[in-house]
Amino acid sequence: MTALVGPNGAGKSTLLGWCAGAASTGTTAGGRLELAPAPATGPPARRAVPLADATSWSATRRAASGLRLVPSGANVFANLTVAENLRVGGEPGRDDAGAVLDLFPELKPHLRQRAATLSGGQRQLLAVACALGGRWRVLLVDEPVQGIAPALSDRVYAALAAAVAPDRAVLVADPVTHRATKVADFVWRLERGRIVFAGEPTEVARDTAADHGL
């Protein structure tokens, strides 16, 4: 799992939105988005697979290729129940709700409850649950634990990290560096729209401390 950290206003949400095709081109100075093709059936290839240039793809095409954005702010269907949200967000023909509810049993008592009546933290947890139970190859999650109780935040991050696989990648954005880097394999730090650091989680901690004279 890769973490994108940096202060509020650094451009993390804009970068994730651009990757998903949801941000207007005027908000970025440029860039290139490359995606690996969907894995073929049968034995894995023994050679490097060329990446596809997805820079000009529409948001719809990016989503169809397996790129999924979970915006910040508990992005769920307010008029649907928790159970209905999980079905809508899940992969067609599969029932992954049970596995997701095992990860977040806090949602079980609210399955028949409309999402609009949940607390902000519960809606955010539902948004993450819907994403994990869905069909994706690259998951972009903006502030996954916003509004969620600290005691549950570590479990949310652990679930996101556990979802990473050879054919699945997760990128999370969080303004709180230590929270995201606990389980991340790689970290980018963004400041004023620019990547100022890229490296291991232990290195970003030292880099941040040096910037503050610690």
Task: Report on the biggest sheet.
Answer: 6 strands, mixed
The proportion of strand residues reads 15-25%
> Spans with pLDDT under 50 lasting ≥5 residues?
40-48, 209-214
Radius of gyration: 18 Å
CATH class: Alpha Beta
Give, in order, the helices and strands: EHEEHEHHHEHEHEEH
CATH architecture: 3-Layer(aba) Sandwich
Strand order, sheet with most strands? 4-5-6-1-7-8
Mean pLDDT: 84
Quickly count the helices. 8
Could you name the CATH topology? Rossmann fold
Spell out the CATH superfamily.
P-loop containing nucleotide triphosphate hydrolases
Shape label: globular
Helical content (DSSP H or I, runs of 4+): 25-40%
Secondary-structure-derived class:
alpha/beta
Q: How many separate structural domains?
A: 1
Span between N and C termini? Answer: 27 Å
Q: In terms of quaternary structure, what is this?
A: single chain
Give me the count of strands: 8
Molecular structure report:
With 214 residues, the protein is an alpha/beta fold. It has one domain: P-loop containing nucleotide triphosphate hydrolases (Rossmann fold, 3-Layer(aba) Sandwich). Helix content is 34%, strand content 16%. The chain has helices spanning 12-20, 59-64, 82-89, 97-103, 120-132, 150-162, 177-181, 201-211; strands spanning 2-5, 34-35, 52-53, 67-70, 138-142, 169-174, 186-191, 194-199. The strands form two sheets. A six-stranded mixed β-sheet has the order 4-5-6-1-7-8, sandwiched between helices. Strands 2-3 form a two-stranded antiparallel ribbon. Helix 3 (82-89) packs parallel to helix 5. The longest helix is centred in the middle third of the chain and has 13 residues, at 120-132. The model is unreliable at 40-48 and 209-214 (pLDDT under 50).
